[in-house]
Amino acid sequence: MNSEWLADFWRYRELLYFLAWRDVKVRYKQAALGASWAIIQPLFTMIIFTLFFGRLAGVPSDGIPYPLFSFCALVPWTYFSTTLSQAGNSLVSNAPLVTKVYFPRALLPAASVLSGLVDFLVGASFLVLMMMYYRVKPGWSLFLAPFFVAGMVLLAFSVSMFLAALNVRYRDVKYALPFIIQIWLLVTPIIYPVSFLPAKWKHFLAFNPMAGLLEGFRSSLFTTRRIDWGLVGISVVTTVVLLFIGAIYFRKTERSFADMV
Hints:
Elements: H1 3-11, H2 13-28, H3 37-56, H4 66-88, H5 90-93, H6 95-100, H7 107-133, H8 145-169, H9 172-186, H10 199-205, H11 209-220, H12 229-253, H13 257-260
């Protein structure tokens, strides 16, 4: 990722905003419930998790009401997983643009990453209402929440670049993505807290960059939880590494997109 590439992003920023807004409009076109789907999806998932894991399985939630415990993780996770699904197919689904018009191709996965923030904000607004319902008052650590959200945005962009470029060459990625996202959900502390895992498994969890960022976001909302900066630090470093890997692979294969898409 060099300065010239970053300069292209700034030069084409208006196109980026246009593509992101187009994605938002396409997503809700002819959808009767519109942006409400950004709440419905994590809400119903939370209800299922609460019934099966919170009550039947008795999974702990570190003293936080389990519905709130799971929902505050499902909001960023829904953003992340939806972004990967859309951005991973962004180059293939925009083949006419890729083959006929010149622009930095990385704008397409970047637009999916930005457009997904609309859903995140809608889901976060309902999260605020849930915190009010459970009478949870956040502390000063709430100001750290944007830091963790920014980390998840960067992670989503990093992985999306790699998957989008890989999907141009190998269309199997389209079919593998749902499976990858499902497995990633299970190895991310959404259903369970990190404290629920045996000590030896926590070391493996650290290599999942979403784990530290999501746990940090969850902990920033509650005064009863301490942020595990060790886990967060490993997640941030891993995210930066993935960003460089994704950017290098994307740049390396970008010239062949028009011929293969």
